[in-house]
Structure formats: structure tokens, C-alpha cells
Amino acid sequence: MINYKNDIKYFNYSVKTYLLKFSNFWGRSSRLEFLNALLFYFSLLILISLIEMIFSIEPKVYSALFQLFFSIPTFAIIIRRLHDVNLSGFWYLIVFTIIGIIPLIYYLFSEGDVGENDFGLDPLNKKFE
Question: Whole-angstrom Cα distance, residue 112 to residue 10?
Fold first, then answer.
């Protein structure tokens, strides 16, 4: 049976972690935490873009500011996600080779290491409130 209360609690925990650990590039983030943070990010970006379209805000200032504001937390959670699959954060640089986007996407969405790895404890063992 699916327990939606825990899903909502974990979504709230993921978003809170995403925003509060904006400058933490050490540690690990679980796949679900990463996906919840992406869902939050893209939901807000779509909402801001729709508001700009409805009110005909031409230079798209708000979506640009939003993306600028959330660039560091997004980069940090990507690095922590790479740590979860036991890869260094420098693996993010393969995105600049164009073809490197494919393995990066694979690493971001693959299952993390079970137990402790080089970058810390398993994030799935944490209890959330």
C-alpha cells in the first residue's frame, strides 16, 4: 500500500535539503531527493515562465533571475548525486564534451551505492521529519 503522507513528507524534506544545502558540495543525495528537487525547480520555472507569458513581460527578467538564483543549489545537488554513485564531482565536467551528457544523465539517474562509500553514509538511511 502506498503511503502518501510519507511521500509528501519526503518531498518537503527533499526541497528543504535542496534549499538549505545550497553551498554544500560534500556528502550524498539520494535519487529520490534529486528527482524531487528537480520537480520543484522545474515546477517553479514553468510557473514563472507562464506568468511572464500571461503578463507579456518581454525581457524575461524573472525567469533569468530565478535560474541565476537556483544555479548554485542545482549544481550542489548534482555534485552530491554524483557522490552517491561514488564518482567525483569533477565528472560533471564531461557535460562540456557534448557526448558526455549521455553518461552524466545515466549517472544522475542510476541507483546509488548501498552503505558507506568514499563520500559519506548512505542517504537512504536518514530519517526525515
Answer: 17
Q: How far apart are CA 57 and CA 30, in angstroms?
A: 37
Report how far residue 35's alpha carbon sits from residue 108's, in angstroms, rounded to the nearest whole number: 9
Helix, strand, coil proportions of the chain in percent (round to 5)? 65, 0, 35
Burial class (CB in 10 A: 0-12, 13-18, 19+), 103: middle
Give the residue among 119, 36, 34, 42 at the shortest CA–CA distance from 77. 34
Query: Among positive and negative, which fits the CA dihedral 9, 12, 14, 17?
Result: negative
Buried b (16+ CB within 10 A) or exposed e, 7-21: eeeebebbbebbeeb
CA angle 96, 101, 102 (to 5 degrees): 150
- The model's pLDDT over 56-111, given as tens digits with 9 standing for 90+, comes to 888 889 999 999 999 999 999 999 999 999 999 999 999 999 999 999 999 999 99
Q: Closest Cα to residue 75, out of 62, 52, 58, 92?
A: 92
Q: What is the pTM of this model?
A: 0.89
